[in-house]
Amino acid sequence: MKRILEDYLPDDDIMSEEEFRVNAIKHIIYDKLSETDKRVILLYAELGSQREVGRKLGVSASTVNILIKRIREDILKYFKNQYDS
What backbone torsions phi and psi does residue 16 show, to the nearest 5 degrees? Predict the structure, then answer.
């Protein structure tokens, strides 16, 4: 898990618009999400499979699907509140 966290740390030296958005989302993940939500979304980013995340966490893929949808909504809400004002 530590290696995954290090791979997804925000980098404030990024300049392009797309990279700005990615960096902003990384900040939201680290600053706003609970440790559980952070773990779920980072495992999903790393493994790319809800089934595999479910296996790692000991829950069903459908539970992971529900969690991912809610976490994405939370990230979007934080992003809009912070950057679309």
Answer: -65, 160
Sign of CA dihedral 30, 28, 72, 45: negative
Whole-prediction pTM: 0.76
- Alpha-carbon gap, residue 53 to 47, rounded angstroms: 7
Q: 82 in helix, strand or coil?
A: helix
- Name the burial class of residue 49, with classes exposed (0-12), middle (13-18) and buried (19+) by CB atoms within 10 angstroms of its CB: middle
**Cβ 52 vs Cβ 42: under 8 Å:** no
Q: What is the mean pLDDT of residues 7-21?
A: 67
